[in-house]
């Protein structure tokens, strides 16, 4: 009788990883599988392509500003993206300067093409 019980619980070496009906085992196997390799993202545009252009051109790529500080006719704008922050100085509706910064103080800031990759 012991041989029959052990035969029910054993898995053949060339068989499936889990016993039939073992939903927890199937879940663990599915979650433990490595994630498929992601495709490399296409780099975004260089910062120079936005300087001197309308701010709406930049916002078409990075979205709306998380922070806008107005000082007379000029503005400072901060955009919070997944990989970095983008800082723009705007005068008369045109981008004057464009830089990037890290999300966490002390880390290295990625370039704008890296920061906006895949956008």
Give a brief rundown of this model:
The protein has 119 residues and is an alpha+beta fold. Helix content is 25%, strand content 23%. Strands 1-2-3-4 form a four-stranded antiparallel sheet, with helices on one face.
Which helices and strands, and how do they pair?
Elements: H1 2-9, H2 23-32, H3 55-62, E1 67-71, E2 74-80, E3 85-91, E4 94-101, H4 112-115
Antiparallel strand pairs: 1-2, 2-3, 3-4
Features:
single chain; 119 residues; alpha+beta; four-stranded antiparallel sheet; 4 helices; 4 strands; 25% helix; elongated
Verbal overview:
With 119 residues, this protein is α+β, with helices and mostly antiparallel strands. Helices cover 25% and strands 23% of the residues. It is built from four helices and four strands; from the N terminus they run H-H-H-E-E-E-E-H. The N and C termini lie far apart (64 Å). The model has no long low-confidence stretch (mean pLDDT 82).
Q: Helix fraction?
A: 25-40%
SSE string, helices as H and strands as E: HHHEEEEH
Q: How many beta-strand elements?
A: 4
**What best-fitting shape do the alpha-carbon axes yield?**
elongated
In terms of per-residue confidence, which ranges show pLDDT below 50 for 5 or more consecutive residues?
A: none
Question: In what range is the share of β-strand residues?
Answer: 15-25%
Provide a count of the helices.
4
């Amino acid at each position: 009788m012991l041989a029959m019980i052990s035969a029910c619980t054993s898995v053949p070496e060339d068989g499936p990883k889990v016993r039939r009906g073992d939903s927890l085992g199937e879940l663990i196997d599915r979650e433990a599988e490595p994630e498929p390799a992601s495709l490399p993202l296409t780099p975004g545009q260089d910062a120079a392509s936005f300087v001197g252009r309308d701010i709406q051109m930049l916002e078409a790529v990075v979205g709306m500003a998380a922070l806008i500080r107005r000082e007379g006719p000029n503005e400072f704008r901060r955009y919070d993206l997944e990989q970095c922050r983008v800082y723009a100085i705007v005068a008369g509706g045109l981008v004057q300067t464009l830089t990037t910064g890290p999300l966490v103080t002390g880390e290295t800031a990625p370039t704008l093409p890296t920061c906006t990759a895949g956008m």
